[in-house]
Amino acid sequence: MAATMSPARARNLAAGATTIAMLAALACAATIHAPSAHAADDDLPARVGRVADVGGALYLAPEDRASEWAEIGLNYPVTGGDNLWVSGEGRAEVDVGAGQFRLAGNTNVHVSRVDDHDVSIFLAQGRMTFRLRYLEPGDTARIDTPNTQIELLRPGLYRVDVSDDRQETTLVVREGEANAAVTGGAQQVLPGQTATLFGDRDVQADVRNGTGLDGFDTWSADRDRYYRRGRSATYVSPQMVGAADLDAYGTWQTEGEYGAVWFPTSVAVGWAPYRYGRWTTLPGWGLTWVDDAPWGYAPFHYGRWVFVGGRGWGWCPGRYVARPVWAPALVAWYGGGGVAVGGYGPVYGWVPLGWREPYVPAWRNCSDRCWTGYNRPYAVNVAERPRQPPTHYANAQVPGAITAVPGAAFAAGKPVAPNRVSLPNAQMAGVPPLAAPPQVKPLPIASSSVRPGNGVPVPASSAFAVTKPRAVTPERPVTSTPGASVRAAPSSGGSPVYNGAEAPRPGYAAPPGRAPVQNAAEPPRGGPTRVAPAPQAPLTSAPPAPMRVAPPPVTSAPPAPIRAAPPPQQVPAAAAPPAPVRVAPAPVLPQSQAVAPPHAAPPAPVADKPAPGKPASVPVPN
To answer: N or C: the chain end with fewer CB closer than 10 Å?
Structure first.
């Protein structure tokens, strides 16, 4: 006999089935949308640096080809993994959006990381300055050297020198605040101070008030003035790499639906965007445009181009975005095997994207956030994401807008303008655009290269493998005490953590009691900018040793040696022998050990010999 089910039980079973179906649908939806959430973390960096100024010879070695150097010039893109070397008496500046780092001659660096929130540079040898302009909450900025790691805590101006033997790092904080890693902790360095960090495994710090200047600093100051003159920040974000050059080479005008449009003031007859320059290959991004014009970076990696009657070609930056997304080239592609001109064989051509036309990245890992960043500021309907690029482009109808070169010249990475072939619009009318950029082997960085040896250094990424910098441990900082050798109190245990590709990225830690600030070239408002001077104590009769700043006054015991202890000397029995001063993490200075104010003028060197039993001080190296 068949069993009967009560109406109440039937309703419960139906409700349960509905609940299970809803949960299954939610699980399915989560499965479908989960990859997009994870894909956002896999997006390529929205920031890519640029060679903004160069004098002399500047060489690049990508991390995957770190066996030789290729010479590069203005506007060449710089991204995480690149090695840079400035030879001889040259100099170079790289703009990374958050600021600019500058390299002196005979300087060898590895750009460990440049992305949306981090800038990390390994200085293997030489001299560099870093003008950090923006440091928002969650951002980090670090400079690694062979014997320490320097974390930049505030926007400001920093200089770092590494000695030829890589055993000594000198940090100068002109504006801002930094922590430098020492044995067991971190040494704080404040504005107007110079810290010398010496040693390999046992790193100590000598912090002094006062800084020096040389020709490299003068050039860096000139570059800072150049960035302050710009007025384009009214129309584009100052974090847009290359925007500082627009004012000197063009004018702004408002044009209907486009909004602000920038027009270059001096271009060649028959000029069109993406014609005077060359193509290279950037790992991850693929084919990347390198323009010849001194202003030719921002207009070719952000925005769209339009042809305005009576004015010609104009660049549209679109809606204001604080951190715009960088693209390798904003063009549509034509040609290949279906297009041939005369005896050239296959021809490849391209045309700049116009207003409202979407940019479809050639790589796969472009999330919804990536897609939106590339297209929303330019009036593209981001809700409709096509799987294929459009079949029609407005600028293709502009006479002379399409630029094309023979396939052989394109594959060799040769300059475009001298190798250009003419493609009449009528000939291209029936040619559909390519769905993706041409598939060619990686294009060469330069026509020639230099291998390490005979005075040419190995790339810094190779040196990094054997000279790992010590990481900062910001939870145990040593406060700045000018005029004394500092060795932080040893930590309670654990092994050092190294920054770079071999270890996970440490999280950002703001200094105690402060939040990161965003600022431009000026020092932070309201933050500590100098060490408060303690009351001055009367000096003893012994003359001061030659230093750049006034040493701490001495009342009862001679000062501690700055570096290694000098050879034993005969001293009177009643005199106390000199001993190194070990500074606790939070030192309290007695009245008899006052700190000279940062603005005190340095005493003139004296030629008198030190008093008996008093070791001679060692001047801080430049």
So the answer is: N
Residue 109 · residue 86 · CB < 8 Å? no
Q: Under 8 Å CB-to-CB from 518, ≥6 apart: which residues?
A: 134, 135, 136, 155
Output the CA torsion sign for 208, 213, 219, 223. positive
Which residues of the chain have a pLDDT value below 70?
A: 1-41, 337-344, 425-426, 429, 464-622
Distance CA 503, CA 324 (A): 29
- pLDDT for position 28: 37
Phi, psi torsion values for 13, nearest 5 degrees: -65, -40
pLDDT at residue 46, as a whole number: 95
Domain residue limits, the chain = 52-223+469-486
Class in CATH terms, 52-223+469-486 = mainly beta
- Beta-strand ranges (E) seen in 117-203 are 118-132, 140-145, 148-152, 156-162, 168-175, 178-182, 185-189, 193-198
pTM of the model: 0.72
Q: How many residues does the chain have?
A: 622
Q: At what angle do helices 368-375 and 7-41 cross, to 10 degrees?
A: 60
**Contact by Cβ (8 Å): 191, 156:** yes
Q: What is the pLDDT of residue 30?
A: 36
Backbone angles phi, psi at 555, to 5 degrees: -120, -40
Closest CA to 159 of 209, 195, 134: 195
**How much is the pLDDT for 460?**
93
Q: What are phi and psi of 445, to 5 degrees?
A: -70, -40
Q: Which amino acid is at 206?
A: D
Tokens, residue 427: 């000939």
The answer to whether 340 and 354 have CB atoms below 8 angstroms apart is no
Cβ atoms of residues 92 and 55 within 8 Å:
yes
Strands 449-450, 107-114: pairing is unpaired
pLDDT score, position 328: 98
Distance CA(246)–CA(295), nearest Å, equals: 6
Helix (H) or strand (E) holding 13, with range, is helix 7-41
The pLDDT assigned to 607 comes to 41
Cα–Cα nearest to 149, from 422, 505, 607: 505
Span between the terminal Cα atoms of the chain, in Å:
102
Separation between Cα atoms, residue 324 and residue 518, nearest integer Å: 17
